[in-house]
Amino acid sequence: MVMSKLKKKAKKGSAKKNKLGVKNSLVNNINARKRKGKSRPKKKNTVSKKSYSKMKNKWGKKKKKK
């Protein structure tokens, strides 16, 4: 009986958090990275010209429904 009370208390206030220590959402992740000063190197931060042109070729084309 004591164990069930402890489990309920633990579940009640716990929200899933990621490794940055914030609730999972895009905006929270971006702001947490800003505050911590974590950034990616330029090579991993930008889209290469090759992959950008591949994406650009597919823009405006709708997939056909089966």
Relevant terms:
66 residues; mainly alpha
- How many beta-strand runs? 0
Coarse structural class: mainly alpha
Figure out the total of helices.
4
Average pLDDT works out at 76
Q: Report helical residue fraction.
A: 40-55%
Task: Give the terminus-to-terminus CA distance.
Answer: 56 Å
Order of helices and strands: HHHH
Let me know the largest β-sheet: none
Gyration radius, in Å = 21 Å
Are there runs of 5+ residues with pLDDT below 50, and where? none
What is the oligomer described by this structure? single chain
CA-based shape: flat
Question: What share of residues are in beta strands?
Answer: under 5%
Can you give me a brief rundown of this structure?
By secondary structure, the protein is mostly helical. The protein contains 4 helices and no strands.
Secondary-structure topology with pairs:
Blueprint: H1 2-12, H2 26-36, H3 42-45, H4 49-58
Word description of this protein:
This protein is mostly helical and 66 residues long. Helix content is 55%, strand content 0%. The longest helix is centred in the first third of the chain and has 11 residues, at 2-12. The protein is flat. It starts with a helix and ends in an 8-residue tail after the last helix.
